[in-house]
Amino acid sequence: MKLFRLSIAILLSVWGLAGMGDVKADNGSAANGVNVEKSEQKKVRLYTQTGAPVDVAIIDADGNVLYKGVIAKSKQGTTSFNLNSLPDGQYYLTASNDTYWMSQGLTIKGNTLNVDDRNLQQITQPTLTAYEKNKFVVNLSAKNVEEANVAIYDAQNVLVQTDSFKGAVRRFDLSGLPDGAYTFIVGPNQKQFSSRIDIKH
User: Fold this and answer.
1) What are phi and psi of 67, to 5 degrees?
2) Which domain holds residue 85?
3) pLDDT given at position 94
4) Helices (H) and strands (E) in the chain, counts
């Protein structure tokens, strides 16, 4: 265990979050202007072009956060991560901001890193639109995300309805609620987005 902790300490000491120019990644997985690609034996590059800060984390299979940082808006481009100190296993590189969340699975085996598009999860900020008076539809664009949760809170932050849905579209009839402002919190456990609506009778 001490050796593993030492490896993590070495890993964190050699990581650098520095933009390396606006070189577009040409393989790997892409989501909302974010791309992950293998660059060398046990190194990956994260390409960002979102025009907003990006929260980045590397997480192991047990959910332990090995690295957490922010790529500033001014640093968009390519950021490299050296994973040479990590032992064989499954890891996740996540990137998110207010408009999207993505998690790319990374497998290290036999001193080789694999980035597989089948291990990519992504979700974009849902859209919330009225289709009739006090009736709303949530559209959720996602890839490899099996289930999302919906929680609706009133202006006093009291939970008034909760639900989950599979797929991309879910309708809500809120005509039985009193007038006021309500907040929808939508997304999987890893990332929630909020949208506000008003109910008027």
Assistant:
1) -150, 140
2) 2-122
3) 95
4) 1, 17
What does R_g of the chain's alpha carbons equal in angstroms?
20
Helix segments in 15-142, DSSP class H: none
| CA distances, 23 to each of 26, 47, 61, 114, 127 (Å) | 9, 8, 30, 21, 31
Contact assessment for residue 147 and residue 186, using Cβ atoms and an 8 Å cutoff: no
What 8-state DSSP symbol labels residue 28?
A: S
Taking the C-alpha atoms of residue 185 and residue 197, their distance in angstroms, rounded to an integer, is 11
What's the whole-model pTM score?
0.76
Do 13 and 105 belong to one domain?
yes
- CA pair distance 11, 7, nearest whole angstrom: 6
Instruction: Give how many domains the chain has, as a whole number.
Output: 2
**How many other CB atoms sit within 10 Å of the CB of residue 116?**
12
Give the model confidence (pLDDT) of 113-169 as tens digits: 999 888 999 999 999 999 999 999 999 999 998 888 999 999 999 999 999 877 789
Q: Could you give the CA distance from residue 172 to residue 128 in angstroms, rounded to a whole number?
A: 10
Assign residue 89 a region (left: φ > 0; alpha: ψ between -120 and 50; beta: otherwise): left
Please tell me whether residues 15 and 73 are part of one structural domain.
Answer: yes
Q: Please state whether beta strands 43-48 and 34-40 pair in parallel, antiparallel, or not at all (unpaired).
A: antiparallel
- For tokens 């006090």, the residue is 134
